[in-house]
Amino acid sequence: MADTEFAPIAEHIRSNVMRQGFMVHVGAEVTDLTRGGCVLSVDRRPDLLQQNGFFHGGVTAFLVDNATTIAAATVKGQAALTAEYKLNLLSPASGDRLICRARVVKPGRQVSVVAADVFCVIDGAEKHTATALASIAMIDRALAPNVVS
After folding, report:
1. Distance between CA atoms of 33 and 39, rounded to whole angstroms?
2. Contact present, 43 and 97 (Cβ < 8 Å)
3. Rounded Cα distance, 80 and 69, in Å
4. Distance (Å, rounded) from C-alpha 57 to C-alpha 64?
């Protein structure tokens, strides 16, 4: 069964997310958006790497932060802000692309719990490089009209 109510929510979120200056600065893109899920990815560039040639941990953290918040926002189209996240870096992120897949574990009226996994693409194969669990504060849009989901 098609979720016809999700299309305007998805369009609104995509539009808001791509207005975020840091998304543009990093070169990240929303590669998939579903109700309760978000996939962000970024291609390898020299300015996103640390001194050993791996993606900087800050890039991984940014993808987790944004993807988990976006995933929470997709549930009801409600604005959301990161309250907290725990990030485990599992292995160095090398390769040509980083992909972060976030999924809502438990939606909530005030706080949603969202998990995320980050993979790097090396010669077409994905390598798991990070995992995270986030608490996302759900914001009433009337109280925060300028919050970008």
Report:
1. 6
2. yes
3. 6
4. 11
pTM: 0.92
HEC letters along the chain: CCCCCHHHHHHHHHHHHCCCHHHHHHCCEEEEEECCEEEEEEECCHHHECCCCCECHHHHHHHHHHHHHHHHHHHHCCEEEEEEEEEEECCCCCCCEEEEEEEEEECCCCEEEEEEEEEEEECCEEEEEEEEEEEEEEECCCCCCCCCC
Q: Residue 109 is part of which domain span?
A: 5-138
Percentage of residues in the chain having pLDDT higher than 90: 83
pLDDT at position 149: 45
pLDDT range class, residue 4, cuts 50, 70, 90:
confident
- Does 144 map to a domain? no
**pLDDT for 32-68, tens place per residue?**
999 999 999 999 999 999 999 999 999 999 999 999 9
Confirm whether 118 is domain-assigned: yes
Number of Cβ within a 10 Å radius of residue 15: 11
